[in-house]
Amino acid sequence: MLNALKPQAEDKIVRMMAMFRDDPRRDKIDLGVGVYKDASGLTPIMRAVKTAEQQLWMAETTKTYTALAGDPGFHAVMTDLILGDAVPRDRVAAAATTGGTGAVHHALELIRMASPLARVWVSNPTWPNHLSIIDHIGVAQSNYRYFDSDSCAVDFAAMMADLEQVRGGDVVLLHGCCHNPTGANLTLPEWQAVADLLQRKGAVPLIDLAYQGFGDGLAEDSAATQLLAAQLPELMIAASCSKNFGIYRERTGILITISPDTATSRLAQGALAHLNRQNFSFPPDHGARLVTMVLSDPALRTDWQAELEAVRLSMIKLRMALADALRAETGSDRFGFIAQHRGMFSRLGLDEAAVETLRQDHAIYMIGDSRMNIAGLNAATVPVVAAAVARVLGR
Known about the structure:
The chain is built from 14 helices and 13 strands. The chain is an alpha/beta fold. It folds into two domains: about 10-45 and about 300-390, Aspartate Aminotransferase, domain 1, CATH 3.90.1150.10; about 65-295, Type I PLP-dependent aspartate aminotransferase-like (Major domain) (Aspartate Aminotransferase, domain 2, 3-Layer(aba) Sandwich), CATH 3.40.640.10.
């Protein structure tokens, strides 16, 4: 039987990780893998998370299951963190998932269950796994233009022109903040225009919120999600705790749905529990428990927010430093957009040949479309990267 399987396409990021690991050069720089790193190149455990883990180790008395949809306390603190008071809680359903990726997967399965003919609209470009999961589940998909490669900014006019083709019942996948892979985000007035279009078309937004707190701040990064939630009858949110809590390997995420009424919300809650049961039965709890403890304890929450803010500001500082260094090396403002973008990623606008030259000649690794992880930089590597990019460009 197994010999009938077809070879699967290799994941480009996983392949790049292997290439970087096997590269013997001591001065190699990893700007590809989407993981936050501090100035020393490590992904630290956040202070509040470590304290919560120690408290949990002392207090935990059982490892038995929670509930099919996960612990209600986790649902409550995450809903408050993301939605605030934007919607009544009787319209909200939620399920803990295996990371933000699991939440995206569940959301797409839920779409297929509820409306098999629905089409999912995805930004071009987007996180590659969005497209892979959509294809794997078998949901119809279309792209809408999002990023202008010449200006390295959102092409909002093209985006709205494409979304005019959306039909009632279609789903539009949106990045809530810190767009991956570009780092270019909509303004709040543009988000309002998107909300108006979705309302007029009768389409449902699916928001991937993977980086809350990494862009302009915790509240600012959820503002677009809250705007849509307050104005539209239905909404889905796939959120990750990997980045803002630094618990990547705990695979902690949540899928939140907003329904037009309480009865529909109950249906959604039952469907979410059913999806958990079919995919992995009960969700993992350790990471979710730590998040719940941090967000429920005033002292831990204050410390977590302070450390998260320091992480956010460090990435903005790196963005500004890289933009300045590239301006000095190239004699132009071609890369000024880097300082304006937010989150972990930006696309430099280099072709694949230039990216390959950076890898071969300078031991600098990034994704083939020139997406780079800003958090992979530090004060010492910023000038190195800037000089290498300038050389590749022939300056």
